Amino acid sequence: MKNLKITTSTLLFLSVLIATVADLGLLSPSWVRTSLVLAQLPQVGSQAKNKEDKPEEVVDTEVNTPVVPDTGVDNIGVVDPIVKKPAAKISDKVIVETKEIRLPVSNKPGQISTQAYICLLTIWQNFSTAPDVTYGAYVACTAGVPYNIQLMLERSNVNTPYNYLQSSKAPTHFCSGSSFCQTPTYKHTVSGTKHLHATAIATWIGTEGEVVGSPKVRATWHYNDVGKAYPRVQLPQPGPSEYVPFPYDPPYNVCPDGSVPPPSCYRDPDFPKNVEAYYRLKQWVIPTGSKIEVHHIKPLRWGGDNYVQNGVILTHTDHLPFTKWWRKFNPRVW
């Protein structure tokens, strides 16, 4: 077989393939990341604007085996699928990560593979109904080759965000050489302050009988001590980022109650006007409304500072969810 290259004909094949799948309700053009479009994900029914827009029901009867909760300690177990097919639309409380992978016929040491399949491996995590979180994965390939999708949840402490610990693992999902393959949707109950990572790996068998695996793809979101998801508030564009970011800068130190707290615990009265001046310097959009507030991305109470890079301008309505979320934040060590 000739070497597979990403050519115009290959992309044309993908376009036809994905357009066909889209007609079946599995893909949505709103999730275009490259020339390939991404499959559509389950949505929360409350987003329907009218009867005509109401999505189909996504939750089927659950399996009797209970969902394994993440209690903050190693608790590995199998979780059960609750959704067998995607709904018509998606929720805006979904984090999606996609990675292009190559499925070589063989990567056995000393052997050079002359054949490979180009695929997109996607993992998603829906936190719209937290502390119950749903997640799943799918693969879109240029050609069919039998492969598996290994799906799991990993967690990490906010003070050690890149130290992944496995919390639960779904049964391996087998794809029988189809160009598009989607896992069931799984549910997991979150408890305690943590980062939760939905993780997917594609594996297949090489020509020499060896197991070949893809890199991990992770979709990460953040939860406080009552399992509430970190607010996802979109910023006016252009701006510092698309959404208000989570502060990935541990440790999270609580300001002491003593008479001489560290400087970072003091609220600078000039902070709001300094952030506004910084926005104007960068030519970022400043929200309009009757009540505009400046939010510390990393709160002073948890070691934040009064530098303008730690500030973001929000309406009172968008600011309030962050205030409530950080009140239940508890970066304990486990």
Could you give a quick summary of the protein structure above?
This is HNH nuclease domain-containing protein. This protein is mainly beta.
Explain this structure.
The protein is built from 3 helices and 16 strands. The model is unreliable at 1-78 and 83-89 (pLDDT under 50). The protein has 2 domains: 8-223, no CATH class; 231-334, no CATH class. It is elongated, with a radius of gyration of 23 Å. It has helices at residues 8-23, 271-282, 316-327; strands spanning 27-32, 37-39, 81-83, 94-104, 116-126, 132-141, 146-156, 165-169, 173-176, 180-182, 185-189, 194-205, 211-213, 217-223, 292-296, 311-315. Strand 5 and strand 6 form a beta hairpin. The strands form 4 sheets. Strands 3, 4, 5, 6, 10 and 11 form a 6-stranded antiparallel β-sheet that branches. Strands 7, 8, 9, 12, 13 and 14 form a 6-stranded antiparallel β-sheet that branches. With 334 residues, it is mainly β. Residues 274-320 form the HNH nuclease domain. This is HNH nuclease domain-containing protein.
Give the topology, please.
Elements: H1 8-23, E1 27-32, E2 37-39, E3 81-83, E4 94-104, E5 116-126, E6 132-141, E7 146-156, E8 165-169, E9 173-176, E10 180-182, E11 185-189, E12 194-205, E13 211-213, E14 217-223, H2 271-282, E15 292-296, E16 311-315, H3 316-327
Antiparallel strand pairs: 1-2, 3-11, 4-5, 5-6, 6-10, 6-11, 7-8, 7-9, 7-12, 12-13, 12-14, 15-16
